[in-house]
């Protein structure tokens, strides 16, 4: 007679989870679906309970997308600041869901707004994680012309994360858009330089270059599949790994 199977040991000690704002919409056309937020929070709480330190960077595309607004005539810097404020709203929603799930959480902003969240300070962020809190990092880098992918990479390097987990609605990086090309092939692993040279669009070039310079691996995975956030945080092989240089 055998005893219960032991839970898999976490592969990582500290991770940065990048959530797209669009993922929070669920089936809605815009805004936040509370059910989706709770489902994400339950998975993060489960992974966090295993002892992994977790930082989250969230986008704002479900509320406002700066680049799209700039294309319609709004000043680009102004539009980007508006997008940063959208990430703050998403961050507060994630904080609420996480704390209801049982994980103490702190929202830290690159733009000062002391009445609703803390300013981002690297040492304070690391200390929060060491004390067992999930941190949600909002307002991007605090500067226009930078995406939240770049903000996620910058913060991951700053706080000493071991990996960036990019949660999307696609199950990895493909050689063509799988929605337009059903026969597109998914990479299990791809190098930084190859990703840049092929212009596959999984992340923006600034984020990929920063990750490459700091040897920060990135895992792109489908967050809509139940349990995938936990699998990614625990280090199970899912999605596409972006790291090193892969010879084909």
| CATH fold topology | Carbamate kinase
Report the C-alpha radius of gyration, rounded.
18 Å
Which structural class fits the helix and strand makeup? alpha/beta
Strand order within the widest beta sheet: 4-3-5-2-1-6-8-9-7
Mean pLDDT: 90
Order of helices and strands: EHEHHEEHEHEEHHEHE
**Total domain modules:** 1
Overall shape: it is globular
* Unreliable runs: none
Any overview of this molecule?
With 248 residues, the protein is of the alpha/beta class. The protein has one domain: 3-Layer(aba) Sandwich (Carbamate kinase), CATH 3.40.1160. Helix content is 37%, strand content 16%. It has 8 helices and 9 strands. It has helices spanning 34-49, 66-71, 76-101, 122-130, 148-159, 192-198, 205-213, 228-234; strands spanning 14-19, 53-58, 105-109, 118-119, 134-138, 164-168, 189-190, 218-222, 240-242. It has a 9-stranded mixed sheet, with helices on both faces. Helix 1 (34-49) links the parallel strand 1 (14-19) and strand 2 (53-58). The radius of gyration is 18 Å and the shape is globular. The termini are far apart.
């Amino acid at each position: 007679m055998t005893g219960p199977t032991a839970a898999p040991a976490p592969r990582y000690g500290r991770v940065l989870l990048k959530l797209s704002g669009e993922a929070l919409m669920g089936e809605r056309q815009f805004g936040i679906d509370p059910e989706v937020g709770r489902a994400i929070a339950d998975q993060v709480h489960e992974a966090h309970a295993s002892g992994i330190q977790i930082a989250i960077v969230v986008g704002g595309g479900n509320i406002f997308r700066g680049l799209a607004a700039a294309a319609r005539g709004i000043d680009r810097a102004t539009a980007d600041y508006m997008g940063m404020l959208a990430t703050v709203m998403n961050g507060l929603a994630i904080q609420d869901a996480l704390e209801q799930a049982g994980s103490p959480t702190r929202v830290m902003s690159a733009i000062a707004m002391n009445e609703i969240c803390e300013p981002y300070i690297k040492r304070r962020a690391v200390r929060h994680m060491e004390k067992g809190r999930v941190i949600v990092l909002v307002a991007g880098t605090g500067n226009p012309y930078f995406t939240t992918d770049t903000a996620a990479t910058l913060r991951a390097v700053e706080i000493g994360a071991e990996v960036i987990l990019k949660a999307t609605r696609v199950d990895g990086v493909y050689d063509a858009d799988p929605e337009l090309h059903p026969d597109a092939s998914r990479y299990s692993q791809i190098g930084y330089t190859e990703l840049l040279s092929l212009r596959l669009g999984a992340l923006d070039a600034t984020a990929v270059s920063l990750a490459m310079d700091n040897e920060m691996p990135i895992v792109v995975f489908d967050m809509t599949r139940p349990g995938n956030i936990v699998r990614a945080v625990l280090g199970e092989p899912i999605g596409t790994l972006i790291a090193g240089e892969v010879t084909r």
